[in-house]
Amino acid sequence: MATHYDATISPEWPSVPLLQPGPMPEPRLRLDPAFADLLPPLDEDEREALEASLREYGMLEPVRHWFGTIIDGHTRYVMAQDLGIDVKQQAMMFRDMAEARRFVILQHIGRRNLNPYTRAALALTLQADVKETMRQDRANHVEGDRLDKRLADVANTGHDTIHKVRTVEEEGLEHVRRAARDNELSIRAAYQMTRALRDASPPVVDVVKRFELLDPGVVSTLALAEPEALEEIAMTGFVQPGEEEDAVSITAPANEVERAIQRNQQEKRRQAYIASHGERVATHVEATVEQITSTRVTLTVELPQAVVERLCLAGGAVLDIALPPELGA
Question: Cα torsion at 160, 166, 172, 175 (round to 10°)?
Fold first, then answer.
């Protein structure tokens, strides 16, 4: 048997109309890292200018939101809250988050003082949308530019810049990408660094990551180091060419690091000769090798066998060697 319910509203139940006249109440705004971190933060000069404008004129440009989630104007919102200034709001409608992100990027990529790397990186986030547009153009038999050319037009930069930034964004180490975004490293240097690390050994990559190295020349220089030297560098951050006071920081210019690595290798070979021939012979060998290799000419000389062996290791001058009879054996 069906139960009957009385649909009459009790007099005690408050009467709330479904629709109220006038504007809809503004939603409570909230910050979302997906949008707040989409663009790089304002620099100090930009923040000071914004604060001065808010103090003098109030909020001229509204904070744009999507169902209460701020998509544009995060700094204005936080600063206005701190200053006790009324926040103007503007509701936006989008199909999905991707469309909202696209709106924010296109709004700011040409308005803010962003460096070329950041503009290119932002344009690359629109790559899927541009590809879809190109697909539709092909379906409609519309002649179109290549992908990188279209992205370059969005970023107001060259297509070669798009290629290099894509390589760094997809393959580069985090500290390299960060340095390029912060203008501490040029696009060219960031690209060279990323390319150099493609073929680098894991110990070299580990040193670069551990000490956040940014000089592309250091990568090829570290490749010259022997495994034992790389282990020492990874632990200390220094190349130890000889005495402790001669240590060279791995963050020094690449040519200084290279010289230190070479001296380190020479010192290890010298120690090996001391162990096998004695210190007097080893010292004489090193002095002779230094004298010959520094001349960079072809010589005809009589040399002890130990010097010959060391010259082969050192990759020194081209020699026509005649050994003394007593050392020939």
Answer: 90
